[in-house]
Design a protein that fits this description.
Structural class: alpha/beta
Strand order of the largest sheet: 2-1-3-5-4
Number of helices: 24
Distance between the termini: 64 Å
Shape: globular
Largest sheet: 5 strands, mixed
Order of helices and strands: HHHHHHHHHHHHHHHHHHHHHHEHEHEEE
Radius of gyration: 25 Å
Strand content: 5-15%
Length: about 525
Amino acid sequence: MTDALLQHAQRLPTGTRWLLALVFGLHALLGAVLGLSVDEAHYALYAAHPALSYFDHPPLVGWAQWPLVALGAPTVVLRLVPGLLWLGTLLLVYHLARRLQAAAPGGASEQAGFWAVASLLLAPLMHILGISLLPDTLLMFWSAALMLQTLRLMQRTQPPALSQWLLLGALLGLAGLSKYTAIFTAAAVALCLLRAHGMAVLRQPGLWLGTLLALLIVSPVPIWNAQNHWVSFVYQAKHGAGSGWQGLNVARFGLLQLLAYGPLLLWGWQGLRVATAAQRSLLAFFVIPFVVLAYLSGGGSSLPHWTAPAWVALAPFAGVGLARTWAAGKPWAVRALVLLQALACVALPAAMVSAGMPFLQGQAASAQAGNAPNPFADLHGWDAAGERAQALAVQHGLDALAVQNWTLASRIGWYARPLKVHVLHDGFDQFDLWAGKLAAGGSALLVDWSQLPYETPLGAHGFAQCSWLERQEVQRLGYAVSSFDFYACSGWSGAPQPRLRSMPLQPGADAARSTATP
């Protein structure tokens, strides 16, 4: 696979190659100046706690980082992993688009490849996945590789060699180790092969050997679940079900998808018009996951980046459609959208680096004050807060940290390693597997963040005593972005009931409440 990607890179036109190198370099630069997001930190902690699998996702997102984390690599190096996966995904998409236009005259296939790459480069959310290693970053790469391998198997007139079936099985297994939604990609592979070869494909011994290999590769996931009361499967089933289904949620989902990925990818429908019947069956790689996730969004359980592998599958067709539109002498709509999406792709990282300053100035978020949290504050200040938490824990003789939400645990847990982190809520999550529940009567350094502020837990549903220690301010470009409050707490009740703060906390306001009343 690596040799094939290198060959694809060598065949790129010079202009396309330099464009990819430029964007890869910009991703590396952003990765050097931005802190880890909540999901990134969570999956980096996977690598710090090697296991067969994990509570909320399969293990490959942790395994891929484990060697670098074990060596203590800095964030900028960790982010080379998603950068290389992103680059590999684009190379595969380029090659797919060219294969779709292999019979076209002149330089049509090369133009289709360029526009397929461009449609992804101009999709704003794709750049987040090019910087952050999420399960979706991995699944984008495996989905593109599976789409290419499936196309090869569909177009063969002679029975494929065993190695080709084994490669398909390996790719399916690695996709399954990346994210549970890889089952949709596997369904697309099966549909394409059945449509191309009919039921006769089931008589291929290589197919079953490849399937066996896929099951063997993905086996750590069910083994770990069997050892842990099937918690991951139960969690994903409940998470996918969401709450009450509403059509308005689906409409919001569609609008957010258009903003996140841009309309250029919709030219895939134009590309489908000139595709062969066999090639059109590859649309299953887009339709199956997208339709399922759109439906799940009705229950409020679908996030924008979950569909990224589906959009990657549509990109080769978008490349064909965009190239034909351009060649037909009707480029004005394409030019306008290129400009708009390019501006969005510049604005998003600019907002990330600046934490949205000065446009998102405001008070700290609270439950009643109506102050929405700053979505870009996530990326700043956690490294300094983790370092300070370590120092305060040593100073006050505390061996653990405590937070009241798992999203806070991921960032502070990563940057304050090796201190263990307890999440003070009555649910169950990955941190309960790593650190367990804080024992009744226990002590910890409590960390509160202004963008997700909680009432200081005291009394019957908290600690017997909490002493406010200090506040650490986070600034960006001279503007206040957020703040962290640290408390030395003792006498945990063992009966959590976290409550979001109704009003912003003034520094030291809880110091007078260091002893709770029952």
